[in-house]
Design brief:
Elements (H helix, E strand, L loop, with lengths): L3 E6 L17 H13 L4 E4 L8 H10 L5 E6 L6 H15 L3 E5 L5 H5 L7 H20 L4 E4 L4 E5 L13 E4 L3 H10 L2 E5 L3 H17 L7 E10 L3 H17 L20 H12 L2 E2 L3 E2 L1 H6 L7 E4 L1 H13 L4 E4 L4 H24 L8
Parallel strand pairs: 1-2, 1-13, 2-3, 3-4, 4-7, 7-8, 8-9, 9-12, 9-13
Antiparallel strand pairs: 5-6, 10-11, 11-12
Helix pairs in contact: 1-12, 2-3, 3-5, 5-6, 6-7, 11-12
């Protein structure tokens, strides 16, 4: 089974334990960050989105121009530009990058965040709009001739884009969310359904919900599944846990963290999105789950994003990642609290172990696994 590894890049050095410093867009840092992931063997990097951060497509375009192989999963919120315009923008970057673009659709979990860009729809309406948005977007990429669309949220006529994606039949669509509305839309539209890192049993339940939604939508092949974590590695178990507690102390001292796309800077009171509430519920059940899952970092940050950790030696964390592969996960999104340094360490120490074990299984070799 092939497993895809996705990291994450930003335009400055910042995380829950590192206050943002320097210019908001640091080209030299973007180049270094991109190179760390490409040299480390990552398949793609996520380029995040918020109402206050640099435009993801432009960040991805710059990073693509300074890399050769790495793919770019660009977060995108439907509703702020027309789906036909978004289709052309992504298709243009796909052509310039040599087919290295994917779209990560996030309908929006925070009303406060959405309203900063002028969106006043309620959550369920946002998912309904996303459903229609993706229909028009995909048709713009794939229809052979002009088409019209008259829907609840969008009305277009005589659409016939000259620019199409280099990838065929189209650019891959990743989709995030943990609500019933998210399952319904993502189950119908997504190529890859993205979840945050919960305990194995709860993750299996979510996978079953996504697959049931896909079946209800008439799909014969369900979306592939992505799960995201924040690995904390150490040369020994003791050193890994010492580092984990130092990170937690720094987050707590900063009253929820300094920045990045998680942490309380991106949070507004108690979370309203189901994904964050699920992470907090897991944290309430206990600090440690399964082989290496650790939840206090999610609790400390308000679970505003992918914030649960996997703690241990590279061998322990690799085995924990493989536990998720064994229940049906095929994409692993990992990023660290020391973003640049951790990306390089994952490439040296973690990714090779997972891939070696998968190759061993593929070859049918006996012997002790990772």
């Amino acid at each position: 089974m092939a497993v895809e590894f996705i990291g994450m890049i930003g335009t400055q050095h910042v995380s829950e334990i590192h206050p943002a410093s320097g210019q908001v867009v640091n080209p030299e840092f973007v180049r270094r960050f991109t190179r760390a992931h490409e040299d480390g063997g990552f398949d793609k990097v996520l380029v995040g989105h918020s109402s206050s951060t640099p435009d993801g497509l432009q960040v991805a375009a710059y990073a693509a121009a300074h890399s050769e192989r790495l793919g770019f999963l660009v977060a995108h919120r439907p509703g702020f530009v027309a789906p036909t315009l978004a289709a052309r923008s992504f298709a243009t970057l796909d052509q310039f990058s040599g087919g290295r673009v994917a779209m990560h659709v996030i309908s929006g979990g925070s009303d406060v965040e959405q309203r900063r860009d002028g969106d006043w729809l309620a959550k369920d309406e946002r998912y309904d709009r996303t459903d229609e948005y993706l229909e028009v977007l995909v048709r713009t990429w794939t229809e052979e001739g002009p088409f019209d669309h008259h829907g609840r949220y969008y009305r277009v006529a005589d659409v016939n884009a000259e620019i199409r994606p280099l990838q065929r039949p189209r650019i891959p669509i990743y989709f995030g969310g943990s609500s019933e509305a998210a399952y319904r839309v993502g189950g119908r539209r997504a190529d890859v359904y993205a979840l945050w890192g919960e305990p194995l049993a709860e993750t299996a339940e979510q996978i079953a919900s996504v697959r049931a939604a896909a079946e209800a939508a008439g799909r014969t092949e369900p979306p592939r599944i992505s799960v995201s974590f924040r690995p904390i590695l150490g040369a020994t178990e003791e050193l890994a846990w010492e580092r984990a507690h130092r990170i937690l102390d720094q987050i707590t001292t900063a009253r929820g963290g300094h920045g990045s796309f998680t942490g309380k800077r991106m949070h507004f009171g108690a979370p309203t999105n189901v994904g964050s509430r699920r992470l907090l519920a897991a944290a309430e059940k206990g600090e440690r789950h399964d082989r290496a899952l650790w939840t206090p970092t999610a609790a400390a940050t308000g679970a505003a994003g992918n914030s649960t950790a996997l703690v241990g030696t590279p061998e322990t964390v690799a085995a924990a990642l493989l536990d998720y592969v064994d229940i049906g996960v095929s994409t692993l999104l990992i990023r660290g609290y020391d973003p640049l340094e951790d990306a390089a360490e994952y490439g040296r120490e973690l990714l090779p172990l997972v891939r070696q074990e998968l190759a061993r299984r593929e070859a049918g070799l006996a012997g002790a696994p990772v």
